């Protein structure tokens, strides 16, 4: 059983331990559950692949700032409580730039995050997982930044668990399983990026044993959270249509279906896409990876916007119902392009 601590207290404990060390190692899994309490409802925004700052022809700024502007409006309109960041937080945006971040002192913390996401977006936590572009450099610096510089960029380890207790007319529990999917998406022997391969070597992620260990860790967390009204999972790589087929990713689908995960949020594909729950699976799959770049998506999806669309996902949970909206933020004139509802695990049925 994992220890359950309030998010503030547990963060201070971890931070204090790491500050005593001269070097901060990559933390793979957290041994505590970070508990948060909210009144009446949850409201959050999901974005991924947001750290590209490159400018198109004739642009005064990159597409990232358009999306950030619209996100700010939505976060302030709905008083959003946090951001779910599904990774690829920092890109190589120019020829003389570098992938990811070099350290906690990298200027991208300011230029790609603090200076871009303002207002309400600069006040609330960003619950984060790593994407492949984060692994292309010093992924441990993102953990170190979270623990020693600014806890709003919340990534205490590569895998971690949070719970939200919503105190409304009915007490509602939401469990979040934050997963680093890079170990499941990529085969070590086929890795092309040298720094990513070095990072895998550092953690011993070079054979099937650690893959199985991580799958067992995820399964154990899902077992421990079976009392939750909602179980939500986040990771970088999508599980929609044909995108499921990469290496060990189907194993995640098996676990999510077996233990009644409500929804999985991802990015990597630079699109807005959705796969609805089916009678034989309670899982809704979301891709929100269009916060600064666009690309083709996953074949076999139920719904999706075409390449060239930028945007994000907004969601609200009130007791047994989640409502969600995909927002087109290609320009600063935002437009809702898809809306839907999900129901809690105890009364689930396809919508």
TrEMBL record:
Pfam families linked: Metallophos
MF GO annotations: hydrolase activity
InterPro entries reported for this sequence: Calcineurin-like_PHP, Metallo-depent_PP-like, Metallophosphoesterase_PAP
Residue ranges of domain Calcineurin-like phosphoesterase in the record: 44-271
Keyword set, alphabetical order: Hydrolase, Signal
Signal peptide: 1-23
Domain of life, per lineage: Eukaryota
Protein name listed in UniProt: Calcineurin-like phosphoesterase domain-containing protein
Organism the protein comes from: Rhizophagus clarus
